[in-house]
Records
---
Amino acid sequence: MKTAIIAAASGYSPEDVKPWTESLKKSSFNGKVFVIVYDENAELMDYFKEQDFYVLKTTSRNLYNVATQRFEDYAKLLKTETFNDVDLVIHTDIRDVIFQKNPDTWLRNNIEDYHILASAEGVTYKHEDWNGDGLQKQFGKEVYDKLANTETLCSGIIAGTKEGLISLFETLLEIAWYSAEPWGFIDQHFYNLAIRLSYDKVTKIVPADSSWCLNCGTMIAIPMNSPEWSSGPRTPYNSYERLRKGTYIENMLVSLPIINESNLVCTPTGEVYPIVHQYDRYIPWKEKILNNIYENSGNHIGAA
């Protein structure tokens, strides 16, 4: 059986997704790669076909943001004959993700008997503004209170068994319609609710300092760009929770990642992350990461 990597692209040029493509080829991943392209984008379609990727063109339906719609489309795709020989699936964002090692190797060695593998962000809801504010705005204070001390999970990288992800993705769409703005760019809130309230027993939550995936936004960009942030509500939401003490770094659940002499992004103990998400949010690392990708890029991945 094979592992499939699935992604969705809307409004991007080939240059926008080139780091994802080139780093994936360099990683020696040899499973299936499937990209959904939304609306008319012949240039991008042709680019992915040149990489020997499976490509599907579809249309955004304006019921909700494409970031949410992709999960509905993924669930339908995973039920087709194309995925009959697939047992594990990795969903990733596409514009701001790069691969440093073959993600399939880590996934197969670590998923154990779980159905879903979730990547943690190293901070709780009450200590991260975008996640905390959005959750309360969309689902109310009672829901926020239940998750305030819970670590946030990133919807940009999700892995698991094919059957597990089909079920999860379908649930995300059901949850969306209970939010204040189902059409908003808020798929991460649907995802966190699904995992924490429905799929917690079948999900392996991978700590942010374990060598699976680094989400640079919460793990390096915020702590390094705003090192002195400490207190006070900056929005109308969660004001009583936002009387925080200490800096963002002091409130993190794990230590900061590092970049080694080979320009590979690593855990605090020096293990290389197979996947780096939001690599462009921390500028001091961005150029090093991109230079590393384009040196000695590997061969194309076969779609067979």
---
Amino acid sequence: MRRFILPAWVTLIWVLCVTSSAWSQTHGVAVQASQGQNVPSRAQLRQLILPGDFVRDMAPWAKFDPNCDLARGGGIVIPAAMQTLYDNVTAVGGKNFVTLGFNNAACGQASNFGWVDFPDTPALRAEFAAYAVQVVQSVPNLAGISIWNELNGTFNGGYVGPGSAAAKVTAYCLLVNQVITEVRQVNPDIPIAIGASVGWNIDGWFIKLFGRYGCMGKNDPTIWLDVHPYISGVYSPDVSNGWIKWGKKLANIREHGVNNRLIATEWGGPAANKWMQQTPGGNYPQTFQDVIVAPDPSWVGLMWFEALYDTSIVNMGLLDASGLTRVGRDYVGVFVH
């Protein structure tokens, strides 16, 4: 398998650009069609995204690969709801963004859920990489992919293998490297997000991901850092809560020479709901833009979690049956109009 290494002069230009000039940011929304939520209609999407904005969902490995035969030449099966989502996003001028996640019991794993198991053997990595390749080749108007989901979170990304946290991250980097290598053979330019992180405590995670555990892609402009910056609490420049800690953690990452761009495949959500309860009348999207996004020039995109009202995780959607929610109106005012 080929490893793709940028020439030194390309890396130098990339680092200088990230550290010295502002980038534009693309916004968008995350949906839960892969987990049974409604697919946003084209009319609903037009309320929430501008042309070129991202719409993100998980691509459920088991549903796309029901026979676990992709590495042997089989083909993926895109469920009807997912295809409708991809087509709706394309029709309104948006771009699809896919997180590769879940598991695949057809491959011998314990469950199809992403928080129960993890592809940590050569055979599973080969099948997962084949799944990634076919997703890249099949999803229309694709802006990028991300590898796995919240590996540093409460459920450890589903990793249940032997050993310590070091074993988990090593297994993750083996998966990342195989996916990047094989996807690059069919598409050399598609952005690939790695890290699968959640929360504000990200510096040790991303520094060690490259420096200690061997993930490829450091300072590659096509490899982005996937973050879920769920930040709540009442913002104050004098209180060391997540609002302040995020900037310090990100600065530490940059000081260690990791200059990859950031992609928030989820933000807002339960953290925004908690913040709004603590800050009556406050505008969470504007505060987040001012405090978290604006100070750092390397954001490539942010996708609000989530687009539609969710009956199992309430008060997070930008839209409900009656139209824009309170936070939906704030979001649209900041990022759409």
